[in-house]
Write a structure and sequence with these properties.
Order of helices and strands: EEEEEEEEEEE
Shape: globular
Largest sheet: 7 strands, mixed
Structural class: mainly beta
Radius of gyration: 13 Å
Strand content: over 45%
Length: 111
């Protein structure tokens, strides 16, 4: 039974930062990893992705504010989120491109 467990979400004020983590129970070494988010009433959207070789891509809405990284030895992928804004409020999901999803972690940006 493969598990991806996200953590690090919470309530933060506008302009604040959070770091999300996603720990996989299987190897991530050969796989691209992605972070998605879904706000209430909206479709799930791709936020950031990182290839097996470390190449990163970001949605325009988060470029320059979010950073995705990976630690293959720990089977963990991270999402550092800076300068958070209310429109970043969503449930954030980790995805292993072997076909696995995490359960999501809530991020709420509000004063």
């Amino acid at each position: 039974h493969v598990q991806l467990v996200e953590s690090g979400g919470g309530l933060v004020q506008p302009g604040g930062s959070l770091r999300l983590s996603c720990v996989a129970s299987v190897s991530i070494f050969r796989y691209a990893m992605r972070w998605y988010r879904q706000a209430p009433g909206k479709e799930r959207e791709l936020v950031a992705r990182i290839s097996s070789g470390g190449t990163t891509n970001y949605a325009d809405s988060v470029k320059g504010r979010f950073t995705i990284s990976r630690d293959n030895a720990k089977n963990t992928v991270y999402l550092q989120m800076n300068s958070l804004q209310p429109e970043d409020t969503a449930v954030y999901y980790c995805m292993h491109t072997g076909g696995y999803w995490g359960q999501g972690t809530q991020v709420t940006v509000s004063s």
